[in-house]
Write a structure and sequence with these properties.
This protein has 262 residues and is α+β, with helices and mostly antiparallel strands. 17% of the residues lie in helices and 39% in strands. A hairpin with a 6-residue loop joins strand 4 and strand 5.
């Protein structure tokens, strides 16, 4: 396996198939369906429902079957951001090919008194968490001065790769508005399993606009971080732990889906 042993040691990685899945709501545990590598390869159909996902966490992010929009999970509610940035509540019977959630319990709470640009925000998050290679969930509530975001329209079968699908992503802006950022920071050595570094989605307080964050200016507001110690993964049929896809492939996909900014 190409899984970095540091990931297994740091997050107590555990995998399970759908048939053996049990409900679990535990602080400091990240629950994930499928792997980022499977998504890279075009595995856009999931066997996990939104209802099942909500029984494993109340904060998180992901996508939907056929890569149809961005998923934002906040306060136990699951929202879909369409390609134009509009947001609708997702039904419990809808399915996801990739998502990460946690039962959020903050270990660090930090008041941001002034607006911060993207670089300053990520630096503040890293400083509060004690380092970029820590693993934690992120929540910010407050002013969204200007957020450059994106979403992806529904893909048609036969599905393209994620790199190919990223060519159709739509960019838009959110704010100024009150709202929430949710997301995760995974270590640089989590590639293939998860998105290394920061991964943030945004949603406005009126639940009308949202998407995957490419660049953000936020604040004032409240930043909360929750340390993650365990990663529990549901592996759909045909999906295994990564076996070593070329780093160039991952880098190309990340560059395209991030739209040149993070």
């Amino acid at each position: 396996m190409a899984i970095d042993p540091r990931l297994v040691q740091a997050l107590h990685l555990r995998t399970v198939r759908h048939a053996a899945l049990t409900d679990e709501l535990a602080a400091h545990v990240a629950f994930q369906t499928s792997t980022l590598e499977a998504l890279f390869d075009g595995s856009f159909d999931g066997d996990l429902t939104v209802g099942e996902l909500r029984r494993h966490g109340d904060l998180g992010l992901g996508t939907f079957d056929a890569l149809d929009g961005e998923m934002i999970v906040v306060d136990g509610e699951v929202w879909r951001a369409h390609a134009d940035g509009s947001v609708v509540r997702a039904g419990d019977d809808e399915r996801t090919p990739f998502a990460v959630v946690t039962s959020f319990a903050a270990d660090v709470t930090l008041a941001l008194a002034e607006p911060l640009d993207q670089e300053a925000l990520l630096r503040a998050i890293g400083d509060a968490a004690g380092g970029i290679d820590a693993t934690y969930a992120i929540r910010f509530d407050g002013a969204l001065g200007l957020v450059r975001a994106r979403s992806v329209p529904r893909q048609q079968m036969p599905y393209p790769t994620l790199v190919e699908a990223a060519a159709s992503q739509c960019e838009f802006t959110l704010g100024p508005a009150e709202g929430t950022l949710v997301g995760f920071a995974f270590p640089s050595w989590a590639g293939g399993v998860e998105l290394p570094g920061f991964h943030l989605h945004a949603i406005t307080a009126d639940r009308r606009r949202g998407g995957h964050v490419l660049e953000a200016q936020v604040g004032p507001g409240t930043l909360q971080l929750a340390v993650l110690t365990d990663l529990h993964m549901e592996l759909p049929p045909g999906v295994e732990l990564p076996d070593g896809a070329p780093e160039s492939t991952r880098a190309q996909a990340l560059a395209q889906i991030e739209g040149g900014g993070r």
